[in-house]
Amino acid sequence: MTESSEQREFNLRDYWQIVVRRRWLIVTCVLVATVAALVSSLLATPVYRATCTLAIERTGVRVLRETLSSAEPSWLDYQNWYNTQYQIMQSDEVLRRAVDLLDLMNTGLPGQDDSRENRFFSAIRKLRTTVVRTLSRTQVPIEEDDPYAPYVKTLRGGLSVEPIRDSQLVTISFVHPDRVFAARVANALAEAYIRFSLAAKLDIAAQSEAFLVDQVRSLKEDINRRRLELHEYAMRHNIVTGDANEVSLQNLQDLRNRRVEAEADLEDKRARYQVLTSASPDSIDEVRQHPTIAQLSAEVARLERDYANKRVLLGERHPDVQQIATELAAGRERLASETERIARQVREAAKIDYEQARRRAEGLRRLYEETEQRVSELQQAFVEYEARKAEIDRKQATLRELLDRKNQMTLSASLAEDRALNIRVIEKATPPRMIFKPKKKLNVALGFLFGLFLGIGAAFVMEYVDNTIKTPDDVRDVLQLPVLGMIPAQEPATRRERRRSASRGEQAAEIEDPSLISARAPLSPVAEAYRELRTAVLLAMPDHPPRTLAVTSCQPGEGKTTTAINLATTLAQLGRRVLVVDTDLRRPRCHQILKASTGRGVSTYLTGMSDLPALVQTSDLERVAVIPAGPIPPNPAELLDSERFRTMVRELEGFEDFDHVIFDSPPVLSVVDPLLIGRQMDGTILVLRSAYTSRDAGRLGVEKLRSGRVPHVLGVVLNAVHVEHVPYQYRYYRSGYKQAGTDSAQARRGAKGARRTAAGGRG
Questions:
Q1: What single string gives the DSSP state of each residue in 690-749?
Q2: In whole angstroms, what separates CA 398 from the centre of its chain?
Q3: Is residue 315 scored above 80 in pLDDT?
Q4: Tens digits of per-residue pLDDT, 129-163?
Q5: Torsion, Cα of 442, 445, 447, 451 (10° steps)
Q6: Are 570 and 531 in contact (CB under 8 A)?
Q7: Got the DSSP string for 88-126?
Q8: pTM to 2 decimals?
């Protein structure tokens, strides 16, 4: 099974638990709703339903239908048209026509005293008028009474219009206690709708002809005005034909090509000018290839060869060698000057070419932009011209169609065809034989379902509004603490179980004090739950079982004292010796349950009035001793926060006569005592009552224990758990719980067996 399916199964199980837990609320809602539906059905007046069937075809007056649109109507158009007809059937005008056809103004409605009704309605209307005039600061105009109003209201109240699926048929139904009157009204409504439709068609035909005449006149005036405006527009923008627009576009294209060529030439000459400007004179091709430079370069080369040869033959100081050296220097100087002069000329020529190319490109760019703007304006004007012309052409076409339709409606006899009725009665209404309402079985079934859904909804609302801790999952999720035990609630024996016990000659046993249930009914599921708690407590600390334990709760009434004594009882059943110390110095109860004397106790020891061994008292429970709280002191918190209390805890831990010492402490949310006690313990147990302790109270109690530096909070004991409050996986005790709780003989045998088990060390 996948994770999602497991989660879904878990959620469905939780929902079922909510239904089971709130079953009496659901049953109550179901019973109330079902009985209410049954009573209302029995008290309701039977009514009959008469039905008349009509066929409605969509054929109306053909005004502009063929001229303005050649497309077939869509399915949505048909649907809207039929829905319109259904609303017309229920309109006031059709209902008034039906009232006239039935002559209700004279005959009145069947089954009532007209004079009495008229007097009653008249009195009501007069009272309303008086009240309005009295309460209004200004004069309120009162509308005249409509004599049709009560009859129209009655007809509308019983009328229903329903189309028959996948057909052009529609049913008109009327509901009334008088079955003959119901049939008469249904037929009258059909006849009134047919007459209304015919009158509407005749009115439409007359109005359409007048409408067409007015439209033709208006269109002619509009076309003439638009033609005059079009002519003025063409003259203002110099629009002649479409060829002129094409010539302008061709000229613009030529200018674009010339502009591109000029910009390319400009880039070339700019690049050449930049290269010549940055290059050295002797690296320019035009300079190197100039005839003068070539001649001077050859003369310098010749002198260099002569100088080199004669210097080798004659020596460097020879007059001829010095003469050649002088000529060589002069030649080189002349070559350099000529090179610089020619390079300057080449650069000047390149600059002149660049400036000329730039001026030409700028001129073409301005010319292109001006031409482009003129062409754009001309095109925009031409587009507007064509749009106005097309609009005139469309209006002329519409004018021709209107003239054709006007002539047809004036001269042809096709109007008779359009007046032909498209509505006919298929089946007239007859007095019905079967009662239409109330439908008792259906109403009861609907009431049952309504009550069921209402009850389930109320159950879920109450469940989610309930903010109490009910299940171990709530403890883990809200408090982040382990669940040491789950103690089921002790429910009284049912009547059936008492009868079964009485038939065997026994009396059902009821444990009056749940604090002693582990000793009095050791085979009960409650005792078994306390033994489970005992095991969890012994295994709670990995090194060794806790010797000193404090048992507290969040608030009073959660069962901390009951848990402490039952835990002591189950530990004693293992053969261990247990001492119960009542440190609830405000509302002690251990002495009442364990039958101990209250003259001395914890308070007398803490005040230094007695020794600790003298305070230990025996109880009715085997291997269980008790130190009662003693007289209630005025300052319990100061006594528990004293060094004397810490000494008492150390002395009790040193008692070899006892294996475990259990301290019953007050609720943690009420006083600070549990924090002072828990700091000295090996472990602290928090008792919460299922469906009683709120999540906020539980969370606050745990936070208070942690902030009070209580070192070892072992976990939570969930007390008084009802079977329906917990998920299925926690109901291991359900099958035998009531059996064990009601069989007195078995309880007595279980108590004896528990004592033998305690002697043998069994848990």
A1: TTTSBHHHHHHHHHHHHHTT-S-EEEEEEEEE-GGGS-GGG-TTHHHHHHHHH-HHHHHH
A2: 53
A3: no
A4: 666 566 655 444 444 468 888 888 888 888 989 99
A5: -160
A6: yes
A7: HHTSHHHHHHHHHHHTHHHH--TTS-HHHHHHHHHHHHH
A8: 0.50
CA 21 to chain centroid, in Å, comes to 29
Contact predicate 248/237, CB 8 Å: no
Distance CA 530, CA 564 (A): 10
First CA to last CA across the chain, in angstroms? 38
Q: Tokens 């405006």 label which residue?
A: 229
Report yes or no: 469 and 686 within 8 Å, Cβ to Cβ: no
515 DSSP 8-state letter:
G
Name the CA dihedral angle for 664, 669, 673, 676, rounded to a multiple of 10 degrees.
Answer: 100
DSSP codes, 388-440: HHHHHHHHHHHHHHHHHHHHHHHH-SHHHHHHS--EEEEE------S--B--H
- Tell me the pLDDT tens digit for each residue of 175-191: 988 889 989 999 999 99
C-alpha 698/C-alpha 700 separation (Å) is: 5
Asked whether the beta carbons of 487 and 718 are under 8 A apart, the reply is: yes
Residue 647 region by backbone torsions, left for phi larger than 0, else alpha for psi between -120 and 50, else beta: alpha
Token output for 255? 């200018």
Cα–Cα distances in angstroms (integers) from residue 57 to residues 386, 414, 421, 478, in the given order: 45, 18, 9, 69
For residue 30, the tally of other CB atoms under 10 A from its CB is 20
Q: Is the pLDDT of residue 24 over 60?
A: yes
* Side-by-side strand order, sheet with 578-582: 483-488, 713-721, 683-689, 548-553, 660-664, 578-582, 624-627, 617-618
pLDDT in tens, 514-551: 889 999 999 988 999 999 999 999 998 877 889 999 99
CB 199 within 8 A of CB 94: no
pLDDT digits (tens, 9 = 90+) for 589-620: 999 999 999 889 999 999 999 999 999 999 98
